């Protein structure tokens, strides 16, 4: 079976050592997903794998026969951006922008997790509350680093969409 990326099937006819990240950027030509550390530490390569966020540098492409991947290119278009993409623009949720695709994919998965029912990571008081605190967002987004330090604006953008 092929791997489905943003709704399009791709054959996994690659060297079995190819990471999913390199497959996306090279074979599939989807360079929106970024390579930062290539060791699972920065989150720049975050994509959605069957709806869950994953560091695409840490998994092999050939392991995902039949899976569905969504990258930043699959979330929206310049004419019809995803609400998170639009909010990042409104709030200047970036400086250099290198971490932004991973930040947005991670935020999308986080909001989907919360919509499906959640317990707070940081407080016993807000279990079941639809209101995300800044602390909660920061904890849940802690796998995505921003070397420019644009965290305040990133959190503001996510908080706006979460409301
Ligand atoms: Fe994958 Fe940094 S490039 S976590």
From TrEMBL:
Single Gene Ontology MF annotation: metal ion binding
Claim: Mitochondrion is one of the keywords in the record: no
Keyword Phosphoprotein: no
Coiled coil spans: none
Residue intervals of the 2Fe-2S ferredoxin-type domain: 1-75
Matching InterPro entries: 2Fe-2S-bd, 2Fe-2S-bd_dom_sf, 2Fe-2S_ferredoxin-like_sf, 2Fe-2S_ferredoxin-type, 2Fe2S_fd_BS, Aldehyde_Oxdr_Iron-Sulfur, Beta-grasp_dom_sf
UniProtKB keywords: 2Fe-2S, Iron, Iron-sulfur, Metal-binding, Oxidoreductase
Protein name: Xanthine dehydrogenase YagT iron-sulfur-binding subunit
Source organism of the structure: Sphingomonas trueperi
Lineage start: Bacteria, Pseudomonadati, Pseudomonadota, Alphaproteobacteria, Sphingomonadales
